[in-house]
Every structure is written in C-alpha cells, then in structure tokens.
TrEMBL record:
InterPro entries cross-referenced by the UniProt entry: ChrB_C (IPR018634), Homeodomain-like_sf (IPR009057), HTH_AraC (IPR018060), HTH_AraC-typ_CS (IPR018062), Tscrpt_reg_AraC-type_HTH (IPR020449)
Alphabetized UniProt keyword annotations: DNA-binding, Transcription, Transcription regulation
One function term, GO molecular function aspect: sequence-specific DNA binding
Occurrences of domain HTH araC/xylS-type (ranges): 171-270
Protein name: Putative AraC family transcriptional regulator
Amino acid sequence: MKWITRERPKIDRIACPWLIRKFIDPQAEFLYVPFREVLAMADQLGAIPFDVPDVKFSHKGAYCTFDALVKEYRIEDPAVDTMAVIIRGADTDRHDLAPQASGLWAISAGLAQHFTNDHELLEKGMLLYDALYAWAKYLQHEKHTGQPFENLLVNVFNSHLKGKRIPAWAKELKEMIQDHIDTNLTLKEISRGLDISPSYLSREFSKYFNDLSFGEYIRQQRIEKAKELMRNGTYSLTDIAYLTGFSDQSHFTRIFQRHTGETPSAYRKKIPREK
C-alpha cells in the first residue's frame, strides 16, 4: 500500500507513517512530494493521500491526522491513546494538552533542520516514535529521579525555589486569567500578550501555579469562580456556566462533577446563600 503526503515532514507526517507501519500495514511505502502535487500524484500512483486538506485522513476540528487514523482503523491501545494527545498538542501548537508536547515539537523541528532528505528524516523519526511508544507503554509513570540521592537533590532545589521571587510574567498572567475567566484563553494568545515563547510558558507554568498545567489551572479557577457565584441566589446554573467560560451547562456540569464529585445542583443545595 502506498501513502502520499506533502514534503518536509515534522510531526503528523512522521507520526502517521509510524502508526501505519506498526498497526496497519508493515510494508507500507511513503511518498513525500510538493503540496500542489499530492492529489495528482495520488491518482497517478494509486496512493492514499494524508495530512492535506479535503482528504479522508487529515485534520478534523481540534484533531489531527494521527487521530483520524486511530479512529478509522479502530486502534485500541492505551499507549497509542497517550501518544495521540502528545502528538495532537505538538502538531496543533496546543502545548497545554500534554507536558511532553513542547518537547516533541522541539525534537521534531530539530530533526527536520538536521536532515534535509525526507526519507532519511522519516527513518530517524521512526526511532523517535518507537521511543515515545515504549515510554507511553512501560515508563510513563516512572520518574528520572528514582534514586534516593536524586530525590534529595530535587527536594533541596524545590525548597530553594520556594524562596525565590515570583517572576513578573507569572503575576501578570495570574491577573490576566482572573480578568478573563469567562473567555476561552489559549496558551498561544497569552504568550503573545506576555511576549514569551509558548513552549517556555508551557514548561514553566506549573512552577508558579500550584504544580498544575495551564489547562488544569484554568479549569480549577473556573470551578472556584462557579462556587463563588453559586452563593449568590440571583444566578441560574446556565448563567454561571456562561460567566465562567464553559461552552454550555452540560459541559459545566461534567467538569464540575469531575472536580468536586457532585453535580452543581447538588453542591448548591449544601451551601448557604448570600443575603
């Protein structure tokens, strides 16, 4: 089976060939051609086009081509599911989806810079995804600081960090989040406003925000704001969902229950109303 996509691959166009070879067709052949030639060459060679607009295997909404292949071929593997989130975050510049996403982007960009031949780049990239799969399947809950002396060093370092001043960008970011809790903030938009690299912000965020990722912190703040609004009897749950940035009441109920263990209506019945 032949598969064809646009030249100069970085993330999706290497991750997808890895997935195809490992789970779909071990003998698959991959062709990289200029963007404008993909569909014509696909017809000419009887190849399956992927990761280009208006074809079956491509981006759909927030999901990337890797996700489309997993869904179409019904690949049920927890390690692949873990990889899919990382690949999606790296490929769509949503580094808040997984802490590994910014690292995958950095390594992929570096490989593409180092290897100018697309098939040589594919060969090296396959090793990258073999390693990521092995980590996701066997090692994702392991810590590099597994030895007692390493943990001691980390504890000393963390204690030192706690005594350090919070950087100005972190203070400004906290205010931005509080002021825009009802809007869909993205890490990319915020990094632009702070004039900070998105990958740096994604990497450093948890140090100054309760060891939470950007997405986790946003959800926590929305839930806390919702609890505050529930104490005021003038707001319906639909109003509260809107005022705290959830897409609808159903989304609000689902996230609230995940964080608190009970529905908003059940929670509201237990708290005294503000007079």
